[in-house]
Amino acid sequence: MDYLMAIDLGSTSLKAVIYDLDGNLISSASRPTEKITPEGHPEWVIWDPDQIWQGAAAASKEALSGIDDPSLVRAVAVTGMGMDGVPIDKNGDHLYPFISWHDPRTAGQADWWNENIGAEKTFGITGFPTWAITAAMRVLWMKENEPEIMEKAEKWLLIEDFLNHKLCGKIATDYSMASCMLLFDQKAHSWSDELIDASGIEKSLLPDPAPSGTVLGKISGEASALTGLSTDTTVVLGGHDHICGTLPIGVYKPGSVLDIIGTWEIISTAVPAPFLDAAISGAGICMQSHVVNNMYAAWGAAVSAESLEWFRREFGFEAEQKAEKDGVVWDHLMAWLADTKPGSSGVMFLPHISAAGCPINDDKSLGAFVGLSNTATKGDMLRAVIEGLNYQFLHIIEVMESGMDCKLDKITIAGGVAQNEFWIQNKVDMLGIPMEVSEVEEATPLGCAMLAGIGIGLYKDVDEAYERVKRPGKVIEPNKELTAQYAELFKIHKDIYPALKDLNHGIFSKFKG
To answer: What's the CA gap between 354 and 101, in Å, rounded?
Structure first.
């Protein structure tokens, strides 16, 4: 029996998942991804590289305890979040923590980049907006604020590449992850000398890019002792999490859309060539190299479920108390919606609590409740959060269709939030077309495992891998009466951001800048 492992680096947990070649989950384990606020900087957020590595190793060892022989895991690949990176020295030791995508400290570097290099030029090469969270901004911040550390830096490794290095000692990055540096030429599939020269970032810091599915090497003896993986197991380049997630769902060819809903919501479609014009870049849509060779992922992303987690954390104390005695906290929270109606009694939520990515590209925007009155209930506020996230989804679909002159009408939903029936039905009602909810519970790690299998030849190609692992989905039909109602409310919701933009920028400058 042959098995494949994926290590998935998420913002809340590190997972190690073992599959057979038909996509059946054999064993899994996880450890928390621990956000850390450095002393003296309450607005900063970092990841501890040792915690990341030790958590991944512990999860791997626990997952392997579910099979008889670790050597049956023929290959392992790593996937996860895209922007966070770390400098390492010539001995491979990290020199600084990962600066998390939650961390706002590089807003000034993004401003400098826009003024001196330009967002339009950058997008025309990289396919990425000049977000403050892109890895190049972190490198610039380090050069300006920690020059002694950067003088010792041999390489800058994105978080997945750091784990690959820990597993097998090799330094490399795949095309989809390289895209997150904001220095990658999408057409040439190589680092852009023009942007490297303009930014002043040393090209020698950057690992060599290669296609997803490229074999890196065998598990090292040191990594084997920590993870339990066999030294006969091959490490294969995986890719960016949401793009890996398109593979087991079959959304890696033009004409279909994957909506992954988790901490971030990412709406992605595959295209054979990148759209690199201003109409696309202005909306925060990315054109990123796909994990499937010679394809690109056109996608828009915005922070999503984190808004609900924030609401639960700050307003869900009563529900959490009930859950300690009976059930799950979200069951009690969703019960608050029983007496609410579409439109949340006029309460609307601007879901920019971690800035705005797509379709509004503004890292100084902030979240807001509007339309509050003395009759608003906590249920109205919770419903407004969900509706606000779904208005954001509608807006992303709208700008993608207009920017790429296409119709996105075959949508598959995946991710942990796909199990939230209210959220998904509300989304379908808003858009007004049927959507399929994938039965693949963990699309991202399974897609990553497929790349591991392709890399060592257990699958001939991605099509053969998909035919082995595919599962039927559940189709959700819309309530067309609500579709018409939400179309009117959507027009109002789109006015919130421009009305609050200057005010929020002023607040950001005073409290967050």
So the answer is: 9
